[in-house]
Amino acid sequence: WKVVNWDDPISAEDESRFSCAVWSNFKSRSGEEANMCVTILRPSSSNANAAASALTCSAGHYFTDVWYRGYGGGGGNEPTYVEIGAGQGACILEILLETSANVLAFEPHPELVYGFRKTMAEMDVEFRNRVTLVPIGLSDESMHDMIYHTLKSKVDGQLRGEQPLPKQKIKLPIYAERFDTILENHPNLLPSNAKMIIHMDVTGSECKILSGINGNILGERIELIKLKWDANFVKNIDKCDDRGNKNYLEKLRKEFGFHVWRIYSNGKYGQYLPKRKKPVFNGGDIYATRKSSY
Fold it and tell me: How many CB atoms lie within 10 A of CB 132?
């Protein structure tokens, strides 16, 4: 694999396989705008509804908030925003338009990579220069896998922990590596002392990806991690048992000094502090932060 070069034309093969189903106007929270290529539509949705879904990134609002609460402190020491599971690119656009952060993004699905390249081609070079897109997935080992794609449908694949749709499915090969191995073998992706804030949108692969980040990186270079955690889903897909999931969150807290927060459906939040050996927690938004406040 190689990092996407924004100046290279998209191959004729990709142009023949993929297309922008809809061009939509992305608008950031403060009203900044960008033209966005939306490639994959859900079969039960209209183009307008599918585009609206692709343009949504509530997580981007959170990250812009924390950026201005102290993570983007200026002086050239701002952390890099790492997007694991870039998808259509809405969260990256929010970060680009609302902050001065540099972005390191991972996305294994070739059609989503195609769409994001189309989107970035419409933006000024200043924005393209801030984004490094790596067109592979992350896991706990180097692996080849397949993602199943159905025209005008949701993306489904083993790496993302979902079942393929039965009709008109097309297999697309993808590749995944450990995050720490990538940084070791490709040191030019990030400055050696760069801190990171991470957004993970990888339904079902959280455990594998976290297991692919070594202790030195977790303990010294990552300032914040946001992920969705569904205990039963991760248990079934990633072969991590229910207690193992809980213990991994505990590991972030006890071994690496993170404050781990869970977000409830009503928007309230509280620290993840299990009181039992097997605490009851079925999932939701999880934030692991270096700071003692959410």
Answer: 19
Spell out the SS3 assignment of the chain.
CCCCCCCCCCCHHHHHHCCCCEEEEEECCCCCEEEEEECCCCCCCCHHHHHHHHCCCHHHHHHHHHHHHHHCCCCCCCCEEEEECCCCCHHHHHHHHHCCCCEEEECCCHHHHHHHHHHHHCCCHHHHCCEEEECCEECCCCEEEEEEEECCCCCEECCCCCCCCCCCEEEEEEEEECHHHHHHHCHHHCCCCCCEEEEECCCCCHHHHHHCCCHHHHHHCEEEEEEEEEHHHHHHHHCCCHHHHHHHHHHHHHCCCCEEEEECCCCCEEECCCCCCCCCCCEEEEEEECCCCC
Tokens found for residue 216: 């030195």
Q: State CA 231 to chain mean position distance.
A: 19
For the whole model, what pTM was predicted?
0.84
Per-residue confidence in pLDDT tens, the chain, 294 aa: 899 999 998 999 899 888 888 888 898 888 999 999 988 655 444 555 556 666 777 677 778 777 776 665 555 568 899 999 998 899 999 999 998 899 999 999 888 999 999 999 999 999 999 999 999 999 988 988 777 665 443 343 334 444 444 445 567 788 999 999 999 999 999 987 788 999 988 877 887 888 899 989 988 899 899 887 766 655 555 555 444 455 677 778 888 888 888 766 555 566 665 544 444 455 677 888 887 665
User: Dihedral angle at the C-alpha atoms of 72, 75, 77, 83, nearest 10 degrees?
Assistant: 40
CA distances from residue 274 to 11, 218, 261, 270, 271 in whole angstroms, order as listed? 51, 21, 11, 11, 9
